[in-house]
Amino acid sequence: MNVKEAIFARRTIRKFTQEIPREADLLDMIDCARVAAYGANMQPLKFRLITDAAETDAVFPHIKWAGYLPDGAPKEGERPKAYIAVYGDTDIRGGFETDAGAAVTSMMLDAVDLGLATCWLGAIDRDKISAVLNAPGNLKLLYLLAVGYPAQDSRIVEMKDDVKYYLDENGTINVPKRALKDILI
Ligand SMILES: Cc1cc2nc3c(=O)[nH]c(=O)nc-3n(C[C@H](O)[C@H](O)[C@H](O)COP(=O)(O)O)c2cc1C
After folding, report:
1. Confidence category of residue 21, pLDDT binned at 50, 70, 90
2. C-alpha of residue 122 to centroid of ligand 1, in Å
3. Which atom of ligand 1 is nearest the CA belonging to 13?
4. pLDDT attached to residue 96
């Protein structure tokens, strides 16, 4: 798989098989984040694996899934068995958002290559999840990345007049993307 194929194959997945991703694969993803582009090369991010069943169960209720779908949250038996928590280390710098985007994107693309699927999670209750994960005070929780083997399909469709993703009759997520001509100025 080349880079462009991985970019187009990567889609957000919210239903997973119950197979736990290999720790070596999760660490491989973090290793890709390690070498991402960072402003001033400050590398202010830290990462934590969440694969312990008690922890994955404890963080799940504090995540909002699929805001555009009426019933988009994974059900029992579809929930992720692994997450990667992304933190900003305030001892290194204060602004993290752009750096986190580069890091998460690198991890998501590596996941595609590893046969894994991801869901980048920003609609999370950071206070409650931070309490579960109990990180040192200098680490600010930015995002979770759900990681697992996909139990649903997703595909890009041409955008007509709405950005909202939707499920088709097969349960496949259809993700409208603007046409190339429409984003060129
Ligand atoms: C910063 C950010 C935060 C996101 N937060 C959530 C979230 O909390 N819950 C969720 O189900 N999806 C979340 N997503 C996934 C988006 O809904 C998804 O990327 C978008 O619908 C496009 O689909 P695609 O990733 O397959 O292209 C987030 C994506 C980004 C970039």
Report:
1. very high
2. 8
3. 26
4. 94
Task: Give kind and range of the element (H or E) at residue 9.
Answer: helix 3-9
Residue in the block written with tokens 């190339």? 180
pLDDT at position 20 is: 97
Question: HSE (CB half, 13 Å, CA atoms) of 82?
Answer: 24
Answer yes or no: do 51 and 121 share one domain. yes
Residues 86 and 13 both lie in one domain = yes
Q: How far apart are CA 9 and CA 58, in angstroms?
A: 30
Give the mean pLDDT of 28-54.
98
CA 137 to ligand 1 center in whole angstroms: 27
Decide: 109 and 3 in contact? Cβ < 8 Å.
Answer: yes
Q: Output the ligand 1 site: residues, CB below 6 A.
A: 11-12, 14, 64-66, 119-123, 154, 165, 175
User: How far does residue 12's CA lie from ligand 1's centre (Å)?
Assistant: 7
- Domain carrying residue 177: 153-185
Same domain, 26 and 95: yes
